[in-house]
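Lab notebook, bench 4. The sequencing result for the construct came back, and we need a structural model before the next group meeting so we can plan mutations. Quick request posted to the team channel:

Model the 3D structure of this chain.
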Amino acid sequence: MIKRLRLGILGCAKIANGFVRDVQPSDQVEVVAVASRDLGKAQDFARQHHLARAWGSYEALLSDPGVEAIYLPLPNTMHAHWAMTAARAGKHVLCEKPLTLTQTSAQSMFETARQHGVMLLESFPYYFQPQTGDMLALLHAGAIGQVRSIQATFGFTLSPDDPQNIRFNPDLGGGALLDAGSYPLSLIRLVMGQAPVRVMAQSSWAASGVDMSTTATLEYADGRRAQLMCAMDVANVRRAIISGSAGTLETEYLNHTAAAVGESPYGYLPSQLRLRRGIANTLAFEDIRSPAGSGFRFAAEAFAKVVREQDHAAVARAAQASIDNAATLEALAESARKGVAVSLT
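Done. Here's the predicted structure in token form:
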């Protein structure tokens, strides 16, 4: 039997509830503790999810010898500090997206993790879905020939009248680009296999100063291009079209999936992955079926596996993608603010 990785939750953010709920059935990960700056809040969270321990400070959880690793769902601007603090305490870190706000801080986070012999992994739940693995296998096998471009979107509706929503708070790393845009950007990086050399972005702005929507073009050294769209004022949309020299792949790249509509008690839906082999529009798309489940659980179990196997090579590959994504997000934000193209080289 595999020894389960003992995980603590740093903060009681809304997303942490879904994470703990979905990870609890795992035979590879065990959530054992939670921390909040409000002890009562941590105790309520622990009771709700039947956790063994609740702590009234983040430092107390990081001093808990029964916690081997942490899941970090704090606001975006707090990721770098607490990930590095956890690494210095000898805890492995599974960090919610986006990892951080700048390339420099991303590099510092991974360097701190290396210095203290712990694993740091950025968590995009869709990234660990079997569907994403099947998509990559098709691309690597040449199912659509050479990838020429990708268009990726993610949008949803938020009420601008909700002042408590941190997505409208620029001081906490809010805005469509960081909250929603990091998803299609990470998929673009996964498909293209490298960072762009130049970006051009345009945004519309909320009264608080965060972007409500952003569209962007990303240019690559080999002449390829990608397009990104993210928004907090549209109906829910999440889709990517990958165009190749000999075919097309379309995916919804959902975080959490179900095998059929109505199967999940949490509203998870089937995630579409369609493949057209060939260049003619008369060719039918094939539906690609993949195992379904919670992306939280897939991510936590993948994290436990790299920790258990000390798979530094896998973490190094993921780290480079995270650093590239942080640099690209930084460049996109600069381009949107200044109205000019920004180079990453």
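Residues 127-297+326-343 form a domain with the Dihydrodipicolinate Reductase; domain 2 fold (CATH 3.30.360.10).
Will bring this to the meeting.
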